[in-house]
Design goal:
Layout (H helix, E strand, L loop, with lengths): L1 H12 L6 H43 L1
Length: about 60
């Protein structure tokens, strides 16, 4: 267990702090991915919602 602790500390010493440019670049990338994901979710939610309404209206008229 102690060996794991020392290995973890050695690994943490190798970690470098990101530059300001890297932080801004990754922030913009994450925002773009989140916006695209939200738009895709809204699109598919709308499609499947309309498909469900159509299906239940069709089944109601059949029975």
């Amino acid at each position: 267990m102690l060996h794991f602790f020392y290995d973890s500390l050695e690994s943490l010493k190798k970690v470098k702090k990101p530059t300001s440019k890297e932080v801004w670049t990754l922030t913009i990338v994450i925002l773009i991915v989140v916006i695209i994901s939200a738009l895709m979710f809204a699109f598919f939610d709308s499609i499947f919602g309309r498909l469900g309404v159509w299906f239940f209206e069709t089944m109601r008229s059949v029975f």
